[in-house]
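Hi P.,

Sorry for the delay on this. The queue was packed all week, but I finally got your sequence through. Input first:
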Amino acid sequence: MPPPEPSSQAGRVHTLDGYVNAVGHEQAPLDAQTTVYLDEAGMGDTHRLAGLTAAIDERGGSLVLVGDARQLPSVGAGGMFARLQERVPCAELCEVHRTADPAEREAWRALRDGDPAQAMAHYRERGELQFADTRVEAVDQAAQRYLELTDTHRSSEVALMTDASNAEVDALNRRVQALQNSVAISPVRRWRSAIRATRLTRANA
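Then the structure:
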């Protein structure tokens, strides 16, 4: 018997809510031949994961959850991904592949394992993490570093990121412009993170 023809939905990317809604309105196929991969599953709250698993279970499909329970949690009530790891078969990737630098790998591992001090010591030793006594001084240091990096890198390769207020973003832009002694295109991209720690600039090796 020949294998079934691949669905037109194969390889399609959906949001969790969008997919469950599409399945409910018969706008996306889901049957015993379907395998759904949910990335960043640790960020899915219990209510949404329940809706997805119920839809897949009713139609006999398969679900593969991919994520890290130690990364950003869901906005709503969650924790289900971590519990599922204890109750269903799972595989864990233990080796860092995003960098070939052994020291960088250890720093990332320490940060994930709840030891930020080791990671911070690593980045500070490399000059990639700076401290300031006040936020005003931090803004000035970030602006200075931005100009240093744009001397050796294209401006498209350098960005200032902050989790601060719009007022501080404006102050950072003004400081950069003052240092440049001319009006420039605003280089600051505002970045909100559930983790209230920000590395303002970094030149990747």
